[in-house]
Amino acid sequence: MLFRKLLAHDRGGRWFLAALAAAAVLVPIANLVVPPGSPFHVPTFTVALLGKFLCYALLAIALDLVWGYAGILSLGHGAFFALGGYAMGMHLMRGIGDRGVYGHPELPDFMVFLSWDALPWYWHGFDRFWFAMLMVVLVPGTLAFVFGWLAFRSRVTGVYFSIITQALTYALMLAFFRNEMGFGGNNGLTDFKDILGASLQARSTRVALFVASAIALAGGYLVCRYIVTSRLGRVLAAIRDSEDRVRFAGYKVEHYKVWVFTVSAVLAGIAGALYVPQVGIINPTEFQPLNSIELVVWVAVGGRGTLHGAALGALAVNYAKSVLTVEFPEVWLFALGALFVIVTLLLPSGVSGAAAAIKRLAARRLRHA
Amino acid sequence: MSLFRSQRRSTPGRGLIVTGLVALLVFAKASLASPELGAALERLGTAKTYEDRLLAARSIAESGHPDALALLGDLLEGRLYTLRSDGRVVVAASIDRGYAIRDAATGEDLGRVGRRDVTRIGVNNQLRSSLRALIATLRLEDENESRRIAAIEEIGRSGDAEMIDVLADLGAREESDDVKRAIETAIAVLRLDSDDRKTRLAAIDAVSGSMSGHVRMKLTRLAGDESIDDESREAAMRALERIEAKARRYEILSTIFFGLSLGSVLVLAAIGLSVTFGIMGVINMAHGELIMLGAYTTYVVQRLFPNAIEYSLPIAIPAAFVISGLVGIGIERGIVRFLYGRPLETLLATFGVSLVLQQTVRSVFSPLNRSVTTPAWMSGSIEIVPGFALTLNRLYILVFSLVVFALLLLVLRRTRLGLEMRAVTQNRAMAKAMGIRSDRVDMLTFGLGAGIAGVAGVALSQLTNVGPNLGQAYIVDSFMVVVFGGVGNLWGTLVSGLGLGVVSKLLEPEVGAVMAKIVVLVFLILFIQKRPRGLFPQKGRAAEG
Prior knowledge:
The complex is a heterodimer. Chain A has helices spanning 2-7, 11-32, 44-69, 77-96, 109-113, 129-153, 158-177, 203-229, 231-241, 243-248, 253-279, 289-302, 308-327, 329-346, 350-368; strands at 189-190, 194-195, 198-199, 281-282.
């Protein structure tokens, strides 16, 4: 019932979810059942790559929720993504056990290397999966709540908010680069062995992670869709369009903003947590401001304020990136830079907006004809 | 070697000329040999004890021969030998399996000998320090004042009490105040070893302001010396404390200087931004890359004129201003002007420009860092007082940033362009109605901000690596400086830049460089929550909108 209501006026969303469901079914079959020689076979490498893209898509949806619907441009969403990733990475690190290079039963390799003799307090509990998953949600959520509460309460808006979120992720990057922080410094966390008892190298695990990412993306999409179609979503859109007016109408603007910002950060954290086991590493470069800004361009390309557009933008830009960085590494930054300029100048509502505009135009032509 | 080879190859007639020339040279050299030096060297060669050698060295010094200083240096370094065959003193340079020797008295080249043919004139530590003092005494006559002071200080370090009289003598003749002061300190340092209580106390008192490590070591020893009276020990202790306190003060001063230097870099990086962002309200994420272009301009100027490194900076400054300014105007005309009033879109579009500029530089110059030479007049340091020196390049950049700031202020306050800029930012419609071409003003304002970024790049090229990522490192910092100081307020930018620089340098010894940066960033993030309009918010009409 709810499902139907959510997608009632969302044709793009219906198509998006259908495609996602098809992928979640077909890709595993193409990988596991179809023999390697067949043209329909999907190699495991591609499955992992697609799974990574799906995580990015979830991250893009999370950003679109705050930027497209509430008008909050966060240039630090990569930080929430990375924090979720680190929480997952810590769990995987603890799961290595005594199979590390140094064979220490409890300490991860890098701690042995730094000749630490005990686990820091914040590493306790991460050996249990449920606790790690709780942290995936809690750590980015809490940070976003506190940060958002401070910022929105003192009415830091627009560009100022963007700049301090950028400073936030920059500061976190510097902090995580420090060995003393106990998160592996430069190298971050890597050499993971298995997740929930299944080897990360195994084909079936890869496929399972891909399916999990697809489900998370679909779930994230529905959650966001639910939010934006609810009364809350309308208030958010009103805040985006005229914050003062909403405030004068008696709404607690900052409460709405903090709430949506926190939800978005949690979604980003989940995306990060799914991302880490698929790429096998998490390090401080995930915090770098460039990543967060690149994320913004995915959303801008796809079309902000459409959710499915953001997801498609993430998939398209990342596909282009993985092709271009391999084929013409020199060209990638030119292309990305040009994309920023072109999208903001010529396609302010992204590809999906442009498509809609063309359709409207065509419809008008038809009527006149 | 090459001389011999050329002789072998040359015709007999030419060989004759060469031989004649060599002979002439030898003769000229020999004519310099004085009987006193010869006698002294002979004494040195035959001396059996170190005391005798010292006496001989003294007579070398007293011979007044121009080579005396070099010979004593050779003796000190163990390059003086006696020839086994005739006992002559020679200067030897080690070459493979033997020595190249020349006569010490005449300077005549004696060819090569084997290791066994010569005996080194040995020196021990005591002789060495006496020799150093002796050399220093000779150098005391040097024309150059700072070399004279160095020689005086060396005598102080030698601990040779006999030199007190020499120094006192010299002090009476000396005219320069600086040298006189150095002499007094050196005498006091030597008198620290005196057995006389009064002399010692006076000496302790005299050196208690000195910052030299040698004095500190001496005083520490005196303070713990059981064989001297309590009063002297206490005096030494007090003097040490005073010196330590002074050292701490200097340390704080130099921390503040480094802080101001870091601050001046921040100000330079942010000041262009305070024009584009502060005055125009345009978020220019490519600002860092405009700084980078300025740095690369310096590099190119130095490559174009490799023989004029000294003048490269005066050339690079206007060049960088023009290049970055033109690129800035290009950005404004091509992109920013379509996005006025849409700050988030401006931010994204200019970020795209920054990526393109970075990659352009990477493709043109290579992704590696380029090295920019520091001109001689900018390297080194100047000593304000002993124990407190300022590095010249940082000092120049500090001054330079203030000059740029002052010029910018002048442009904004005193020129027609500045007036129009302020008019357009305060009320665009009204400014247009008064006949100001606001389009042109926008373009020029943006160009001005970009040009200043380029000039900042020239300065930064002297402090950091010049690479494609140079700009990225400064973009977050410069926005923070502008926002912290209060958007649209130039003085705020100056104060916040210098202040943040000093604060992070003061924090650094406590928590480490990276942590200091994090602490400052977190502080800024919290500060902006508290006072979103910065330290010095704009008041009045400009604050609206």
